[in-house]
Amino acid sequence: MQTLDISLSLQSRWPVLVIAILAAVIGSQAVITGTFSIIKQCCSLSCFPKVKIVHTSSTVHGQIYIPEINWILMILCLAVTIGFRDTKHLTNAQGLAIITVMLVTTCLMSLVIVLCWNNSIVFSLVFLLFFGAIEVLYFSASLVKFREGAWVPIMLSLFFMIMMCVWHYGTIKKYEFDVENKVSISWLLNLGPSLGIVRVRGIGLIHTELMSGIPAIFSHFVTNLPAFHQVLVFLCIKSVPIPHIRPEERFWVGRVGPKQYRLYRVVVRYGYRDVPKDDIEFEKDLVCSIAEFIRCGDSDDQNGSLDGATDHACERLSSISKGLPFQEDDDSEVNGSDSSILSTGKETYQNAVGPKAKRVRFVLPKDAQIDGEVRSELQELTDAREAGMSFITGRAHMKAKSGSGLVKKIAINYIYEFLRRNSRGSVTAANIPHASTLEVGMVCQV
After folding, report:
1. pLDDT tens string 392-438
2. Which segments cross the bilayer (predicted)?
């Protein structure tokens, strides 16, 4: 009889084990999906270090995958399971975590009742007291098991809360520093067209997060280095919450300062499913967009302006639906003179200052009316393109001001800097070649 009971017990164990495994898979998938969504929202609110977010669907925006968080969850699960080796401790930790989530949800729901549903505060308080009282009883019962495994979710929550608070605090201080030290147009005008330094041939591409104004890294560069490129482009790359951006709406080009300064601002927008081009194609599209902006003229506002980028009249951005095409030919393939070339149906520009590997020729429409000033500006852009393009990126190092408290020094100098060094940098659409990259560092005293 005992043998029969043992046999039935063993036979019934396998179906229960299969059901338990399937339930664990479903529950873990819900936890992983929820964690990804929360992390993404925290990154959008600058409350969590930047991580790689992979959008797995072209139609549904919420379907995402975060590799770093997935690995962290796996390591934590293995660490807790191996460390406890007891289902009792695991149950205590899970119980406290669940009841804490329910209590926090009830508190947030009471705020939704008042702020979103516009109901009375009395109704919100009644809801909070009724459901909160029940959940507080369960929460206090779970706290009794604090030493028997319930301390794990408390410690993990405390760790991530400190990390998020420090990151948010450091991000706010960094933004305030950028705004306070942003270079004004008047400062730029006082430097003159040469910017007070030697302008060398080539295009300087300065990466910045600002869509208006001149970043502090520019003044830092001008103050410490004796030369800059003859054409400067402030490049801002933005990701928008839609799958794809049409090519004719990707580039927004504007001018910074007067024409003779040869300073431009380009905002490039990418959807979360757009595949960035390589550095060569990106450079060509960028130069074509700037050339088309020069040809059309600054006063042409038929394409509208980009929201949030019209803080100054001379910084108005225009959408470039189609860039002015150009050709790059070897010296042996160019049989023209030192001036512009006229051909049937089109006019091309060619610069022949000296022997070079490539010659650049902009292809102009047949009926294009080009005045002398625009011609000169296009010629200088051609000159700069032939000389090559350099990518200039800024890296700010945060440091607490002298006289700051011990807590602030630890938070900024150690925790925030550690998180910043080990998190992903700014989003850049182009695969920047390392040989053409110059990184400029500066210390931000906050």
Report:
1. 887 778 888 888 889 999 999 899 999 988 887 655 544 555 567 77
2. 16-39, 64-84, 96-115, 121-139, 151-170
The token duo for 370 is 């080009």
> Backbone phi, then psi, for 436, in 5-degree steps?
-105, 15
Distance CA 305, CA 324 (A): 20
Please, which residues bridge with residue 440 across strands?
A: 394
CA 290 – CA 203 distance, rounded (Å): 12
Domain locations in the chain as residue ranges: 12-85, 86-149, 180-324+388-392
Most confident of 10-24, 142-156, 226-240, 357-371: 142-156
The answer to whether 81 and 74 have CB atoms below 8 angstroms apart is: no
What does the alpha-carbon distance between residue 284 and residue 247 come to, in Å, rounded to a whole number? 14
Buried (b) or exposed (e) across 41-77, using 16+ Cβ within 10 A? ebbeebbbbebebebeeeeeeeebebeebeeebeeee
